[in-house]
Amino acid sequence: MSAWIRTLWNGAIFHGPAFSGLNERRDAFLQGLLIVLVIGLVVGLPGLIGDVVAGLRPNAVEAEMDKAMSEMDQVVQQMRPFLGNMPSGTLDEIIAQIKENMRFGFDIARKVEAMPTILPKPIDRVFQAIGKWASKPFGGSGFPLGGAILSTWLGYGIWVMLFARLLGGRGTLTGFFGATALYAVPHVLGFFAFVPVLGGILGFLAYFWGLAIYVKGTSVSHQLSIERALLAVLLPALIALLVAIISATGLATLIAISMSGAR
């Protein structure tokens, strides 16, 4: 275990042998899978604790409704200065309708909560929290390599592997996934995501730190220069962005043509 943690630390500080050691292992892919999985679970621990505490709390639905209503009132108070032209009565009616819809939704949640379960309610909620926590590494990521998530590590990695080969890389698929899995190490800072301001700063730092480690892993596993490895890592995202821009532009053009034709 200590040797494994040492490998993670050496990868975080860009120590070359950590990457080459993983790249050359026969079980490189399994090691990479383990790295991403473990760190994803560690990052999800605060959420697990919060969900367990919330699940064991009596009248959880009522507490959530009170919290949502309080947050709604705070948002309204913050928006009032920007809604000076709107009649006060109209705004109050809109807010009342929104709150009524929220109460309707919570009534449904309350009825669902009251339905009988096989296990006692507290135990059932704990198991739900554990299931949610265990599935965290298998979820999605809003941005490539934006967290210790298996789907983006594997899905994005396939494209990086392709471009690395096109740029002259000579690495194996298993070695590449083993070496690049070290990108997940800085994302352990996501453990503090619940801390206001600091969590966001650490997440920003973790992303670019992890991206730099990913480039290093690509370079070592494919025997590429850092410049070529960086190009292999960025090209899939740049191409996807370009395709999205072209698609959006084409769609906007078609809409504009159809609207002009309708006139």
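(the above was protein one; protein two follows)
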Amino acid sequence: MKTHQIDVTRWSAGTPDAAFAALADEAYWPDWSPMDSGELEQPGPDDPHGLGAIRCFRTGRSVSRERVVAFAPPHHFAYELLSGLPLRNYRADVELRPRDGGTEIHWHSTFHAKVPMTGWIYRLALTRFIGQVADGLAAHAAVTTGSGAPSAPR
């Protein structure tokens, strides 16, 4: 089974702390991403949005669920897809590194397609989607840097 990979890198004028705060709290995703809603289905044992948390995102009629598998503020956040797309072993790692007075956002995803010969389609669609999400995160982190908290969810 072929492993598909996606790598998206963006730069933000915001700090890693601001980017991580927005990334970790699913309720704020509709403010800066294409997601219509983000909800915490099950809080993590140590931090509600941390390791073990299960999050649910809606975009149109599509609903995806994911589990937080790495939570190391403000530099590393990772999640695994539990349901929502016909993919196996989907994992995304988001690394936030200080660079040029701001933050480099590197979003790396790997997955296997459940249906043979469809992986390339999902890789193309997800590369575009993750690019939009990373663009939104970069812009949001730049705006919220210095304010102490993301804007209120819509």
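Reviewer note on protein two: The helical segments are 16-24, 29-32, 119-144.
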